[in-house]
Each structure stands twice: as C-alpha cells, then as structure tokens.
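[step 3/7] fold_predict: job queued, chain A
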Amino acid sequence: TFWAKGAKGGERIEEFKVGGIMGEFSDSDSAVIGPVILNKEWTKYTIDLKGKDMSYVIGGFCWSTNVDNNPEGATFYLDELKYE
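[step 4/7] structure written:
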C-alpha cells in the first residue's frame, strides 16, 4: 500500500508496479495498477500481491508516466510505502 497525490490534480500515472525486472536476474513475478489519475488529496492505493511469487524481487517499486498524458509535466507525491 501507499499514499499518493498530485500537486495540481489530474496527473496521470500510467502504472505503479512492484517487480517486473527482466533479464539474466529477473524478478520472480510482478504486480501492477494503473493507469491512475491523481487528485490533490492524499489517496491510498493498494497493489494486490495475493498469489504472486515475491520470493526474488529486486524491482521493489516503480512508476511510469509520459509527456503525451502530462504535457506540462507531472509533480506528484508518495508517502507511507508499505509491504504488507
């Protein structure tokens, strides 16, 4: 779980993700939510890890966005990132 908010509201985050590193030392699994449209109020989000093999994960947490959906940029805040 984690909390997020946008500086202006309306910021689009394509995905928040746990795991997903590929290559010679790949993560064992991944989980993702998105796209997420942020507002100016703190909102709690959950990435469901039930049934996921998280025994070997080096890609602990990431997010992605792009200029097409945020042409003026995107400032956003994260807080209380927890693995439960």
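[step 5/7] annotate
Residues 2-49+56-66 form one domain.
The two ends are 7 Å apart (CA to CA).
exit 0
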